[in-house]
Design goal:
The structure is a single chain. This protein is an alpha/beta fold and about 260 residues long. It has ten helices and nine strands. The strands form three sheets. It has a four-stranded antiparallel sheet, with helices on one face. Strands 1-2-3 form a three-stranded parallel sheet, with helices on one face. It has a two-stranded antiparallel ribbon with strand order 4-5. A hairpin with a 2-residue loop joins β4 and β5. α1 packs across α2. The model has no long low-confidence stretch (mean pLDDT about 90).
C-alpha cells in the first residue's frame, strides 16, 4: 500500500523548493469560488492571492476566461451560473499564475451530460496547448477518453500503469466481455442452465438473472455458448458481446483484490 514516496515537479522537490508549487495548479473536487463576485472578480481575487503583479491581474483574468471559453461571462455573478460554468471558472482560477501542470480531483462530479462533454473537450484543448494534466477519477469511460496514460489504483496499490489501449490489450489478450440476460425464472425452471453457463466461463451477478464473463474465441465460440444455453432451457432476453475496456480492467483488479483478502 502507498505509505511513502517522493514527487518532483519540473525536476523540483515541492517539499524543499517553493518554486515547484508555482508550477502546479490545483482544482479540488468541491468548487471553491466567491459566489457573490463576478467571474472576472473571482479570478482577480485569486490572482492577488497568488501574488501576481497588480498591473497584470485584470488582463490575465480576461485572457484566462477566454481560454476556458467564458470570456462573455466575465461580468456575470458566479452564483447565477450553471455548475458546468462554475467548474470552468474554478479551473481558470487554478490557471491564473500560468502553471505547467494542472491537477484535477473528480472534476465532472455532479455535472449533467452536456456539461461533462464540454468540460472533457476543454481538458483536451488545454492538453493540446501544452498544459500537462493529472486527473483523478472513478469514471473509467472518462479516463479512457481523456488520458494518454492511466494508473489504476486499487486498495492503495497501483495495479497497472500505461496507455489505456495497451493495458487492455495486454491483460485481456483477445478475450471479449459477454453478457447474457435471461428470463427471471430461467434458473428455477432448469438449474442446468447455470451449469452450462458456468462451464462456458460466465458467472451470475448477485440477485439477478444476468450472467457475464470474459470469453476467448471467435464469433463461432460465442454462437456455441448461446446455443448451449438455449439447449439447456434458457430463455435469453439480451446478448452483449463487446471489447473489454478500462471499466472491465478495474472490475477485474477489484475482484482479484477481494479474493486475495478472503
Amino acid at each position: 500500500k502507498l505509505a511513502s514516496g517522493t514527487i518532483a515537479i519540473g525536476g523540483l522537490d515541492p517539499a524543499r523548493d517553493p518554486a515547484a508549487s508555482r508550477l502546479c495548479g490545483i482544482v479540488q473536487q468541491n468548487i471553491a469560488l466567491f459566489e457573490k463576485l463576478t467571474a472576472q472578480e473571482n479570478l482577480e481575487a485569486f490572482g492577488r492571492l497568488m501574488g501576481l503583479p497588480a498591473r497584470n491581474i485584470a488582463a490575465t483574468a480576461v485572457a484566462t476566461l477566454d481560454r476556458v471559453g467564458l470570456a462573455d461571462r466575465a461580468r456575470d455573478r458566479v452564483g447565477a451560473l450553471s455548475g458546468g460554468m462554475r467548474r470552468r471558472i474554478n479551473i481558470a482560477a487554478a490557471m491564473m499564475h500560468g502553471p505547467k501542470i494542472l491537477v484535477l480531483d473528480e472534476p465532472t462530479v455532479g455535472l449533467d451530460y452536456e456539461a461533462r462533454a464540454g468540460l472533457a473537450q476543454l481538458l483536451k484543448d488545454l492538453r493540446l496547448s501544452g498544459l500537462a494534466i493529472l486527473l483523478t477519477t472513478h469514471d473509467m469511460d472518462e479516463a479512457e477518453a481523456l488520458a494518454d496514460r492511466v494508473a489504476v489504483l486499487v486498495g492503495g496499490v497501483v495495479k497497472a500503469e500505461g496507455p489505456p489501449r495497451e493495458l487492455i490489450a495486454s491483460l485481456f489478450r483477445g478475450r471479449r466481455q459477454v453478457t447474457l440476460a435471461l428470463s427471471p425464472d430461467a434458473m428455477r425452471r432448469n438449474p442446468a442452465v447455470g451449469d452450462a453457463l458456468t462451464a462456458a466461463g460466465l458467472a451470475r451477478r448477485p440477485d439477478s438473472a444476468t450472467w457475464c464473463g470474459l470469453v476467448t474465441g471467435s464469433e463461432t465460440t460465442f454462437e456455441s455458448l448461446i446455443r448451449s444455453a438455449v439447449v439447456a432451457g434458457a430463455v435469453i432476453e439480451e446478448v452483449r458481446v463487446r471489447q473489454p475496456d478500462l471499466t472491465t480492467l478495474l472490475s477485474t483488479f477489484v475482484a482479484d483484490d477481494r479474493n486475495e483478502a478472503k
